[in-house]
Amino acid sequence: MAKPTLYGADYSVYVRIARMALEEKGIGYELVPLDIFAAEGIPAWYLEHHPFGRIPAFEHDGFHLFETGAIARYVDEAFDGPALQPADVRGRARMGQIIGLLDAYGYRAMVWDVAVERLEKAAPDEALIASGLSQAETVLKVLTSLKAKGPWLLGDQLTLVDLHAAPIVAYFLKVAEGRDLLARFADIPDWYSRIAGRPSFTRTEKVA
Prior knowledge:
- The protein has a 4-stranded mixed β-sheet with strand order 2-1-3-4, with helices on one face.
- It is globular.
- By secondary structure, it is α+β, with helices and mostly antiparallel strands.
- The chain has helices at residues 13-25, 68-78, 89-120, 126-146, 160-172, 176-182, 188-196, 199-203, and strands spanning 5-8, 30-33, 57-60, 63-66.
- It has 2 domains: 5-78, Glutaredoxin; 89-203, Up-down Bundle (Glutathione S-transferase Yfyf (Class Pi), Chain A, domain 2).
- α1 (13-25) runs parallel beside α2 (68-78), α1 crosses α5 and α3 (89-120) runs parallel beside α5 (160-172).
């Protein structure tokens, strides 16, 4: 089976999610660097892979995908290796629910409104950061309430939801406000330490 290709940048949370899925399955892949924030803009050829010019995009044996959730599910189902989705319908529904809430309510607040605003702006918008922290607190409360007993978010099985949450939380923890807030939630810091120790996490960490 041909080696898949992933297009994107190593700084991207969503590229990292897809890379972690590939790593957990033990699949060799090619990462084609693509910086959507480059001064020269998005190259025209890339719009054939992702018509909206976002990252990541994915190609395998002539099959093209964009959207991280679709890529991660394909990687799990198309390749041998440990299953990364629950076998039962309720487990899969819970996985989809948590991934959905992270995308809809967690990513922008935790990554952009808090971490990027604090780290990359010469004069951070403190009102935006405060609003992001408020939203992040709600996200973490809900995540705590939905977490099953066991080492992973859905219990004893590592799944795509762990791989989806880890890069978002990792970015949030780059700033003191994120670290302080996460420490207030039972089980989540222990879960994060566990996922952060996996080879799939360390191999996909951006080198400064």
